[in-house]
Design brief:
Elements (H helix, E strand, L loop, with lengths): L19 H6 L9 E5 L6 H14 L4 E5 L4 H11 L6 E5 L3 H11 L3 E5 L16 H18 L2 E6 L12 H5 L2 E6 L6 E9 L7 E7 L2 E4 L3 H5 L10 E8 L2 E13 L7 E4 L3 H15 L6 E7 L11 H13 L7 E3 L2 E2 L5 E2 L4 H10 L4 E5 L10 E5 L2 H7 L13
Parallel strand pairs: 1-5, 1-6, 2-3, 2-4, 4-5, 12-13, 14-17, 17-18
Antiparallel strand pairs: 6-7, 7-8, 8-9, 10-11, 11-13, 15-16
Length: about 400
């Protein structure tokens, strides 16, 4: 027992790894004695990311132990050679026995211990095969206990289920200090490290990487990458400035509608919450007069980003109205705002930061709520009180649908 006033607030300072985007997502880096869980689909690049983090720490003369039950030392060695990893301070331990992992970690006391992956390790004294609920819970608990008493930072790599959630007991997410999700389409180069829980800083931060032949490279300007292949002048497309942690990003929202050939129209949302899509469609029908009841509707946030905040409502509504009418939206226009059930457009947080990012990328007009602050220099604000007013301003009301022509 210790008095709170006797606790040194400077203990456990963040240790930067040298991987800028990784450190950005984690609020500066890894904290000694912390346990971080990194989840993601197989083959997405989790092991590659942690190997590069280990290399950066090795260059800074910090010791790293990588314990792997999935890959042999030769496999890890070949990847390290291909990536040009600094191996001077990195030690490998290829075993599935948790007691062996703890023995090695206790003897070496590294700055970082990487466990790849937590579902493949087991303790002979615990009933159940590796990956079972009892084994995952007990192995994680022992590793967390070691981290707290030794001050060693531990990163656990975890699998995900078909639904995209972390496999294993939910207790695992509650036990660890930080939960990260490493996401992306394995057929594309973009990778996103998002922080869902963080006891040492703000959650919701984002690190953006690009997978190359030489490994993962941090993306200093994600907005440029997200908009690199954008095709202007296409109906159903608009750019929305969103906020991920403290970082403003420009994301292209794309929508497409087609006449349904089934009795029940399809509603497909990729990177957009399906509930928000249904809400905006209802508001468009009841408050604006644009009907999509007989149309299949597809909505996508380009780049693999999952938009969780309601600040994209207005942009989604305008993109859907553009898709339904077939009228493109000015490519230099962005939109941000929350849409209520009455069709009103509400203010969102940090609008200034969003508009500054849009101005930096060359956008000249922004459709925003009437309560928005002043625009940055070079940006024209179009304040609207309702979604109907925004749709009317863009001339998207009263247009004949392409499906009705002829």
């Amino acid at each position: 027992m210790v008095a709170l006033g006797d606790v040194d607030p400077l203990l456990g300072n963040v240790c930067a790894t040298g991987i800028v985007e990784f450190d950005r997502a984690l609020g500066g880096g890894l904290v000694p004695g912390s346990v971080t869980l990194v989840g993601g689909e197989p083959g997405i690049g989790k092991s590659t990311l942690l190997l590069q983090v280990a290399s950066a720490l090795s260059r800074a003369s910090r010791t790293v132990v990588i314990c792997s039950a999935e890959e042999s030392a030769e496999q890890i060695g070949r990847r390290a050679f291909r990536l040009g990893v600094d191996t001077g301070q990195i030690t490998l331990c290829t075993t599935s026995s948790l007691p062996e992992v703890l023995r090695v970690a206790e003897a070496s006391r590294p700055d970082l211990l990487v466990v790849d992956s937590i579902q493949t390790f087991g303790d002979p004294e615990v009933v159940g095969a590796p990956g079972s609920v009892s084994q995952v819970r007990e192995c994680a608990a022992q590793l967390i206990g070691f981290a707290k008493r030794s001050g060693v930072a531990i990163v656990l790599i975890g699998h995900v289920t078909k639904e995209g959630s972390l496999a294993g007991p939910r207790l695992l997410e509650h036990l660890v200090d930080t939960v990260c999700s490493f996401e992306g389409d394995r057929h594309h180069a973009l990778r996103v490290l998002s922080v869902m829980k963080h006891r040492f800083g703000a959650s919701g931060e984002l690190g953006v990487f690009e997978m190359t032949a030489d490994g993962l490279k941090g993306v200093a300007d994600p907005s440029a990458l997200f908009l690199a292949d954008r095709q202007p002048g296409i109906a159903g497309s608009i750019v929305v400035p969103i906020l991920e942690g403290h970082r403003a990003l420009l994301i292209e929202l794309q929508t497409l509608v087609t006449p349904t050939v089934f009795g029940t129209p399809r509603r497909s949302a990729e990177g957009v919450a399906s509930g928000r899509l249904a809400l905006i469609l209802a508001v468009l029908e009841q408050r604006v007069g644009l009907f999509a009841a007989a149309l299949d509707v597809f909505a996508s946030a380009v780049g693999g980003v999952h938009i969780q905040e309601p600040g994209a409502d207005l942009a989604l509504g305008l993109a859907l109205a553009s898709a339904v009418t077939g009228v493109p939206i000015d490519p230099l226009t962005v939109a941000c705002g929350e849409v209520g059930l009455a069709g009103e457009v509400r203010q969102v947080v940090h609008t200034e930061r969003r508009l500054q990012e849009a101005t930096r990328r060359g956008f000249r007009r922004a459709i925003v709520p009437v309560t928005s602050p002043r625009a940055p220099e070079g940006m024209e604000l179009i304040p609207v009180a309702t979604l109907l007013e925004a749709v009317q301003h863009l001339g998207l009301v009263g247009v004949v649908r392409p499906f009705e022509l002829g």
